[in-house]
From TrEMBL:
Keywords: Acyltransferase, Plasmid, Transferase
Source organism: Azospirillum brasilense
PROSITE patterns: GNAT
The name this protein goes by in its record: GNAT family N-acetyltransferase
Signal peptide range: none
Keyword Transferase among UniProt keywords: yes
Lineage: Bacteria, Pseudomonadati, Pseudomonadota, Alphaproteobacteria, Rhodospirillales
Any one GO molecular-function label of the UniProt entry: acyltransferase activity, transferring groups other than amino-acyl groups
Length: 175
């Protein structure tokens, strides 16, 4: 796909991320709050996450928001049964959104692969986690395509049932 540049976003992208989310989030993604987005945009050194953007000359085409939840109660490692000490090695793919004009071109997978290859500090994580509404076929397939697997199904965020995905990077993909 031509004309796309991947780069970690910084705090000055807050408005663009919120605008893309407002316009194109749809009913199946739990929208990210301004405070949690700001924290992720601050980057892994100052904040608790990373937001990877896919940019065109005209602006933001897609983003992947990643959070390091640490020992927080909502760390999905708790649902997975990780021991307390391993919670620090978990990350959440908290939001992934592609502009409607760019959907169906493999960007879900490319965002996660690009983040994994060059953006996420490898020493910060061993476990990837995500929650996805079962009816969100594109996102379910996108998560499976990067080696994640479903380990539970239960209500999350707004009370809707969600599939809980994990990938343990020390195990073979899908394990
Ligand atoms: C979910 C979303 C991020 C997918 O992005 P995308 O770049 O269009 O997805 P991809 O092109 O990488 O497709 C991923 C997989 O879903 C399939 N797919 C894509 N669109 C589909 C659709 N409308 N129906 C069924 N399958 C679809 C693709 O064929 C691909 O499957 P494969 O890996 O087996 O080939 C995008 O639809 C979106 O932004 N939705 C609104 C926000 C949202 O719901 N985010 C996810 C929850 S956080």
């Amino acid at each position: 796909m031509s004309g796309l540049r991947f780069a970690p976003l910084t705090s000055d992208a807050l408005g663009a991320v919120l605008e893309l989310q407002r316009e194109s989030c749809g009913p199946l993604m739990h929208p990210l709050g301004e405070a949690e987005l700001s924290d992720m945009l601050a980057g892994p050194a100052a904040g608790h996450g990373v937001v990877l953007g896919a940019l065109t000359d005209r602006g933001l085409a897609a983003f992947l928001a990643v959070q390091f939840p640490g020992r927080a109660a909502h760390n999905l490692g708790r649902d997975y049964g990780l021991p307390e000490g391993d919670l620090d090695r978990a990350l959440h793919f908290t939001g992934i959104l592609v502009h409607p004009d760019r959907r169906g071109q493999g960007l879900h997978r490319r965002l996660i692969e690009t983040a994994a290859q060059g953006v996420l500090p490898p020493d910060r994580h061993r476990y990837w986690f995500a929650t996805v509404r079962p009816e969100n076929t594109a996102s379910v397939r996108g998560m499976l395509s990067v080696g994640m697997r479903v380990f539970a199904r239960r209500p999350k965020h707004d009370g809707h049932d969600r599939l809980l995905f994990v990938r343990d990077l020390s195990a073979p993909a899908g394990g």
